Amino acid sequence: MSSHIYINGEYFSKDKAVVSVFDHGLLYGDGVFEGLRVYGKKVFRLKDHIKRLYESAKAICLRIPVSVEEMEAAVIKTVAKNGLENAYVRLIVTRGAGTLGLDPARTDNPQIIIIVDKIALYPDEYYENGLEIITSSTIRNHPGALNPRIKSLNYLNNILAKMECSQAGCLEALMLNHKGEVAECTADNIFIVRNGKLLTPPTDAGILEGVTRDAVMELAIAAGIPFAEQALTRHDVYVADECFMTGTAAEVIAVVRIDNREIGDGRPGPITRDLKDKFYNLARGIE
Ligand code: PMP
Asked: Which atom number of ligand 1 is nearest to the Cα of residue 158?
């Protein structure tokens, strides 16, 4: 199937979908993005993703030249045009082309790009048995430098941590913040369970406010699982009974080893399995 890539209201095939080499998105990572999932032709939590996109844009003073409603409609139309039952959507807004200098005032015409593609998932065995991760030595961006709440096109912080975990033979890495507290993983949020209580770092730990994280918090509260947003250290992860990550691509996935240590008994725990199944059903509209 040939893909239909949206750029500023027009559709292009993969080889014709291009932006300027003077775009500040390319030159400086100046722009914002979202990653969304399509389940059974429906976009999961579209409004939440669009809200986060506009908030990220606002935080970097990037004025998106279409309304929220127009953006939602553009995503829905692009998904329909590509005809995939289940898919991953990458929505990007760049600062636009400008002169060779940082100043965003010298750019115009932000580029809105929507790509719909097949989704590459972790192999099933990881959902069954859980993942092994490491703590990266690269700390998460200081919120006073580039706030991790902004989903910007500059992902080098996460990429550096990703390289460390790949070198260690792992698929994800835990990133600590500048205070040494647990922040998040390179593309996922993190939760632990200790003594029956579900815990996740608060926003001010310097994390992206994940759409999947929000959904899992809602599911936990609805299921009566004791829950708190709380500052965590690596020690808390080491002595946790259970640990899991959440993200648009990963959904809910257990973490069973970190830094060569077993978490709990080294198997996905009951609360993790329960929330994994609940999220799986929620995303797919299964009652
Ligand atoms: N943290 C980071 C750094 C991410 O890139 C992502 C993926 N977008 C997440 C957390 C998870 O967020 P979401 O559940 O919205 O995909």
From this structure: 3
